[in-house]
């Protein structure tokens, strides 16, 4: 540890939720993915400081936590929009117009692929198969699936996000 | 919330009834009586024998015998033993496990309990893919109900048998569907597959003996206990008994889930159940079992959907995810999407896979752009050959097979791109 008193980035509420998760596994580290999800829920992303703090909790090196963050698609190591929107562009969705939908939404929001709106409201990206192949095209808004979309409906959903 | 399957059989029969997802509703249909029978009237070895007799094969893609897999668990020693339910459904084209979690949580838990008894396991970890927030929530609710009713915990059904279920969520990585990648991920690490041996039955989750089964596999088990092996063998083919939930997607009138016996002909599923291709178009090709499985051309759809028949056509049942492509589809574009996916999802551990998936993707993309070179098709096959059966897990094979399949049946599409120096399918789906 560089500093003996690092600034705590993990709130007491998040910390107690992490402890509940740790108790569910035969070894502490089993709860690491849950802990990362909880920290991300608190901050919107996982900062290097938060990763170091987690490393302390899990008795790991910071690099052990960082490599897990970078391995999984659902963890963000930098700030993004308040909402993360992903359009599935795998084959079953592409066959039913997902790429056109994604471009339409990029134009609607005025963002580059993977970009965030100027007001910080939405980060829009594509994602690989989300297990909704029979209800294509679809998008994931944070933790919610929206299926059987057309461009009009998808725009309405995005416009309603705060 | 998913639409209820268009055709149902014993697994999904009551999925139209919201109450079936609750403990009370499940019990109204005889729920947990099969578990009671196993735990109070049968020795673990008898349960394993019954599942072996039923011929149940894993529904997660590889099709290994379930009873056989259970029998690999050690019966001596006092170290804890674990079950893992693989609910990391992420094979493109597959979305059957999702409905089994959303609408059949107690059916799954009853199958898990029976398997736990048979294998002497003290805990089951259900690894649900991270994106499946709602399915994980539904299953967690069922788990809480089961604990409150004494169906899980220290004294299951008053028998003194102890079993815990932990719902674990992944975080977005296709490779975690591979059973040893899943185990690494469950332990809080990168999901990079392990070398085998040792197999999970010796050294699995947290180093303990472990059996990994798919969601659907567990879900069949209560029905086998309730009705017997002969009843189960009344569905499907002699070598592939039971039903499965086929997920149909792509260019069909009625995409969706269909629970049907194994061995149902592919053309019956595509043309009768899913009602064929819309707007009078014709089928060009069908991927029969999730994206890793080689494609079949329109002329070969009379094949029964069971591995013993699909193997003759150089493909496999996989997860039963059926993707239909109409005659306007550019198969080079399909190859671009497929190879991009595998390039993106390679865990990076083995050179052949990490490099090979990237090369396959680059080559098919340049062919699609009209910038392909003479010899590119041979180069693709050469790269595939250098990936197959050379890596720690089957991911590299799964990346090579669909490219080989597309070249086997639609080489003309690739050659036409090379000849014209552009994509000759202006009406194909957009890239």
Strand order of the largest sheet of chain A: 2-1-3-4
Helix content of chain B: 40-55%
Shape of chain A: elongated
Low-confidence stretches of chain A: 1-5
Form type of chain B: globular
Poorly predicted runs of chain B:
none
Alpha-carbon distance between the two ends of chain A? 39 Å
Key traits:
heterodimer; A: 162 residues; Arc Repressor Mutant, subunit A; Glutaredoxin; 2 domains; 4 strands; disordered N terminus; B: 431 residues; alpha/beta; Rossmann fold; five-stranded mixed beta sheet; globular
Question: Your description of this structure?
Answer:
The complex is a heterodimer of chains A (162) and B (431). With 162 residues, chain A is of the alpha+beta class. Chain A has 2 domains: 12-71, Arc Repressor Mutant, subunit A (Orthogonal Bundle), CATH 1.10.10; 83-159, 3-Layer(aba) Sandwich (Glutaredoxin). Chain A has helices spanning 12-22, 32-43, 48-58, 62-71, 91-94, 98-109, 151-159; strands spanning 83-88, 122-127, 139-141, 144-146. Chain A has a 4-stranded mixed sheet with strand order 2-1-3-4, with helices on one face. In chain A, helix 1 runs antiparallel to helix 2 and helix 3 (48-58) packs across helix 4 (62-71). Chain A is elongated, with a radius of gyration of 18 Å. Mean pLDDT of chain A is 95; it is low at 1-5. Chain B is an alpha/beta fold and 431 residues long. Chain B has 3 domains: 18-233, 3-Layer(aba) Sandwich (Rossmann fold); 243-326, Ubiquitin-like (UB roll) (Roll), CATH 3.10.20.600; 331-420, de novo design (two linked rop proteins) (Up-down Bundle), CATH 1.20.1440.230. In chain B, helix 14 packs antiparallel against helix 15 and helix 15 packs antiparallel against helix 16 (395-420). The radius of gyration of chain B is 22 Å and the shape is globular. The two termini of chain B are 28 Å apart. The model of chain B has no long low-confidence stretch (mean pLDDT 97).
